[in-house]
Each structure stands twice: as structure tokens, then as C-alpha cells.
Amino acid sequence: MLYEINEKVITLRREGKSIINFNVGDPDQATPPAIVQAAYDAMVAGQTKYGSSAGAMPLRERLAERYAVEPANVIVTPGSKWAIYSIIHLLLRDGGNLVIPSPHWSSYELIAREVGAELRLLKGDLDSHWAIDVEGLQSLLDDETRLIILNNPNNPTSKVLDRRNVQALVDVANERQIPILSDETYADISFTPVKNILEYTGNHIFVNSFSKTFAMTGWRIGFAILDRALVEKLVAFNQISISNVPLFLQAAAVKALDLMDDIAHTMREIYRRRAELACSLLADTKLQFTKPDAPFYLFPRCDVDAEELAFDLLDRGVAVVPGTAFGDYNTYFRISLTNPDDAIQRGLETIAAAFK
Fold this sequence. Notes:
Helix 2 (33-44) runs antiparallel to helix 9, helix 3 packs parallel to helix 9 and helix 4 runs parallel beside helix 5. Helices cover 42% and strands 13% of the residues. With 356 residues, the chain is an alpha/beta fold. The model has no long low-confidence stretch (mean pLDDT 96). The two termini are 26 Å apart. The chain is built from 12 helices and 12 strands. It is globular, with a radius of gyration of 20 Å. Helix 7 (163-176) links the parallel strand 5 and strand 6 (180-183). The protein folds into 2 domains: 2-25 and 261-354, Aspartate Aminotransferase, domain 1, CATH 3.90.1150; 33-258, 3-Layer(aba) Sandwich (Aspartate Aminotransferase, domain 2), CATH 3.40.640.10. It has helices at residues 2-14, 33-44, 57-67, 80-92, 106-115, 134-140, 163-176, 228-239, 247-258, 260-282, 306-315, 341-354, and strands spanning 20-21, 74-77, 97-102, 118-123, 145-151, 180-183, 205-209, 222-225, 297-298, 318-319, 321-322, 333-336.
């Protein structure tokens, strides 16, 4: 449904209609010029040839230093989505199941189904502030479980998991010797500090991206940190598929890390302000939601069918994603605050008017 809505938006815009796109989590900021310049300088310097399928060593070393691991544990991928796809493919292509707390990013489910893995969803709810039910998780695990996926902060709820909640999940996973893949794409610009999965004991997998923090969604560069045996398998998979992430993009990623503190602070404050605006404008409506802990999303509960609502709001010039794109949530919808401030104000006022 997420992609169906997106295609509908493209069609309506082609027809000349003005649509406020709350449906895509793509930062409206431009990639910082210094990062663009670094990519250009690298191209001019000749970094346009084949490179290592594991990633260029300067970038791997910088990431290893940042996360206190060895460069051999780092692999660079064309976006975090490719890292996630590759890991699911390698761990579950011969069978088994994976468990995903829900609501969840739709790509996890689509990847699992494409690979042919059995998917087990653990449904969360707004009333528990989206905490993960550890006992419920345990009931879904068995000898065929190959992977647990966490998304922290979560898309679509923008909630950061309580550290005690994560510790309880880690304890269960460690006892069963099941790796956790923690997708922490929004962590560096989170309003609430996130303790990453590498800080817990156990043989777990950390995945991140340059897309959101640096407004580099179209650049397609991400990375994973994991044990060396799985790194080697991922490198081999890259060799027969994507070969390598372009070297000039990796040079730009190094520059992004140089500037990370300033850029992340700026992005964080932009989206903190937008989250506060959204909460203020929707507070006096019939909608129920948790205050975001991180960019970019709100995931309100409403009293109507969310798919019908999504198409109704499209007629009013606002695109949202129904909750059915993220699991069994047909009375929820996702709002992405990735628009200029004036458009966000108008779009939220339209939504508020529908639920007065």
C-alpha cells in the first residue's frame, strides 16, 4: 500500500494537482554542499574504478573507530536496505523463520517473502507506548528461528525502545542463540538517546545508513557491522551482485562523518520543531498518538478505515500511508514530516480538520 500511494501521488502530480506528500520518509533538505563537493573531487581524482566489495578501507576504518569495532567487522552496502536484504537472504535462503515486532517497515516483510522465509510478526500497540512484549516474542521463537529484526527508533512510530526492554530482548535472543538485526537508521538524529545493539552482549548485527542523517537518500550508501564470518559471506554476495559501492560515494561518506556532529544537530532540531508542531496541531483532535522520540513520523490511531482515509485525504491534497502498510493496523496511518514547514502546517491543518 505504501508504494501504491506513492504511485498515485506521482500520477496526480503529473496531472497538475498539488499534493503535500506526507507519504515518503525522504528529507526535504538538500545534501550538504561539502558532501557533494567531496564526491565531485573524488571523481575528478579518478575514484571511478572498481573497488573492494567490502568497502573502501578509509570509510571502513572511520566507521570502525566510531563504533569501537575492527574494520574487518564493517561492510559498506548500497543503502541499508541492501544490507538487510543480503543478511535475510544469507541466513534464511535454506529455510527457517524470522521474527519482527510490528508495526514494521514494509520492506522487512517484502524481503522476507521474496526470499521465501517464514515471517512471524509480533503485534505491538499504542496503549503500551509501542513497547515490545518479551513474553510474546518468546512464544514465537523456536528451533527454526534464524533472526529477530528490531527497528530502533521505529518506523512508523518514531519511538525509541526503552533500554530495559532492549536488554530483555537481548537476553532472550542470547539464551536461544538467535542474532538480532538492529536497524538504527534514525538513531543519529533521534531526540532521545539510543543505545546501539553493539553495546549489548551477544553476536548481533548493526545496520545503519547515510540516507536520513545527511539527506543522502538517493546516494544509496549504508553499512553493516557484524561478525567476520558473516562479513565474508556478504562480501561474496556483493561480488556476484553489486560489485561495490562507487568509490566517490564512499569518499563523500567519509566527508559526511567529518561533519556529522554539526549536520546531525541541525537535522535533529529541524525535526524536533516539526514534531512539536504536529503534536500541537493534532492534540485537540480525535486522533491518538505517542509523541515522537525521533524523526520523521507520527503514527496516529483514528476511528475510520485507514485505507479509505488515505484516498480521501488524497482528494484533499494530502498524501499519507495507511497503517496496513506496516502490519495489522487498519485504524492507523503514518504522517512523514519531510516537507517545508509551510506545507507541513497546511497538511496537518487539513488532517486536523478531518478529525475535529
